[in-house]
Prior knowledge:
The complex is a heterodimer. Chain A is built from 9 helices and 4 strands. Chain A is of the alpha+beta class. Chain B is of the alpha/beta class. In chain B, the strands form 2 sheets. A 6-stranded mixed sheet of chain B has the order 6-7-8-3-9-10, with helices on both faces. In chain B, helix 3 crosses helix 4.
Amino acid sequence: MSRFFARIRFVLSEMWQGISRSFTLTIALIATFAISLSLMGVSLLVGAQVNEMKDYWFDRVEVSIFLCTAGSDTANCQGAATDEQKAEFEADLEELRPLVSEVFFESNQDAYQRFIERFSDSPIAANVVPEQLPESYRVKLSDPEQFLVIVEKFSDRPGIEAVRDQRATLNSLFAVLNGLQVLALGFAVSMLAVTMLLISNTIRVTAYARRRELAIMRLVGASKLSIRLPFILETAFSAVIGAALSAGVLAAVKGYLVDEVIATRFLFTSFFGWDAVQEAILISSAAGIALALFASWLGISRHLRA
Amino acid sequence: MIVFENVSMNYRRSASPALDDVSFEIRDGEFVFLVGQSGAGKSSILRLLMREVTPKVGTVIVDEINVGRLRKRKIPNLRRKFGMVFQDFRLLPEKSVAENVAFAMQILGKTRKEIKQTVPQVLDLVGLLDKSNRRPNQLSGGEQQRVAIARALINRPSILLADEPTGNLDPDTTIDIMRLLDQINRAGTTVLMATHDASIVDQMRKRVIQVENGKIARDQSQGNYGY
């Protein structure tokens, strides 16, 4: 047992000497770990936010069927939609159940109210009368993906000006967010590649600085593991510190940037919670440490003679 | 017990064999000089023993271990049987004398208690107990080689391999080191020493194995450097 502790003490003291001999490289290694793992974590958080928004919005999105107004001038509109046409549309919508789960008719008076509320500060509101705003059916689908069924059935019919899916608007927002996610992930991956090169270089420098000790260790009959372990632990040490720093960054992103700054300005959606932060920290830390172990083993095989 | 049986080996990119059908035996407790010109094959014999290289043909046996067939992960066990001393000492400049010797014990996971006990004993044996806290650069060449010998002995190896241990030393210091090696040999450690130094071989009258062009040219008990 005391032999075991003696071994651990020796490996740790070798590790510590490795760190102090290549101190600036160790700092660089910690910094690249911190940056790349933060980027990876941010990428995961953006992904969590996209999922959060999808959950939040897809329950609420509707397909809107806008009816013609007196002022419409598309091919399908000859004046405002008639009551017969409306009755026909309503019957058709009923027929599409259970795909159609809810239908809500918005009269131009309702639309006007909403419009006034939304643009209360704007001079436009004063110049609008209810008749200018289209009446519409707000249709909720049990499966929002089946939106095209509604489009096929209702677009190109006399009395209907347009069929719009709110999802289309959301999807363009999600496309932007997905783009951000991919971008952050791309940066994270390239930073991790840089980190791997740096690990290899740090090991080369440490191995060179400690070449005499290593030669003696080999000569005296040190096991392969006790020669390699200090190098691996040295890299893992940097990875753990870097991961801890990136955990701080991610916690700050959630605790300050999202909760204090963004959430108070963008009230239209909910945001990812601390569970997502926890998951992002766990995944990026695990990835960082796994990379450290892998790259240091690779680096040692390259720079240390067996 | 060291046995070489019809051992031949090549280095890569070298046409002529480094060793060509070499056979000899060294019994426990012997003192053997390995002589021959540079490149004759002395170092190859030492490197084969340490399993830094493997024979192409033949077998190398150390204490019943077939060295050439030894699994890689068992190599450290083989190397623990040897203490090794070099011409250039190979001490760690930033460690003290005692730390240099202790390092070889730490590597093998010896406890602090064991280290505290053994290091002064061995330093006393090589006559450097009073210089335990010096750095290698504060010592003479002969003293540095004594530290290296202490380090080689600290884990109680059964065989001491010395590669030109007196190559960097003046004649008086050389005699001191040879006395020390003889003393270690008398205490039971097998000593195999590769050397160029004719005068010490002639003085010591020990067994001499002479290598020339990779072959054993002479194996003589109580031999001289030359014929």
